[in-house]
Write a structure and sequence with these properties.
Length: about 120
């Protein structure tokens, strides 16, 4: 959701938007491509997971494992990642120190506290 290629959260933050508004903009931009790729793969794997053809029973467990992983990762990407960013944003939600992803917030918090070159 917070891809640098589409709309990073830090760019709108540098323009003065609040963290929640910048996050909402990034989520609106990234939601459709994430859902389209995830759902297309899931829907394409359903016939393989059902093992309808003779001999296809061999690949059904693989398809079921991929379906489960894609479902969980899709839910994490859509729901958990955007909700985790405000909790881990450095300096009370200030993302002005550069391009920071939610998983790099702890390191960024240390860098921002150290002073400039942020």
């Amino acid at each position: 959701m917070l891809s640098e290629t589409a709309m990073p959260v830090s760019s709108p933050r540098k323009e003065g938007l609040a963290l929640k508004e910048a996050l909402a903009q990034a989520c609106k931009v990234r939601l459709r491509p994430i859902l389209m790729t995830t759902l297309a793969t899931i829907l394409g794997l359903i016939p393989m997971a059902l093992a309808l053809e003779p001999g296809s029973e061999q690949y059904a467990p693989l398809a079921r494992a991929i379906l489960g992983g894609l479902t969980v990762s899709g839910m994490v990407t859509v729901f958990l990642v955007p909700s985790a960013l405000p909790a881990h944003a450095p300096q009370g939600g200030d993302l002005a120190c550069g391009n920071i992803f939610w998983f790099g917030a702890v390191r960024a918090r240390r860098l921002c506290r150290a002073g400039p070159p942020c």
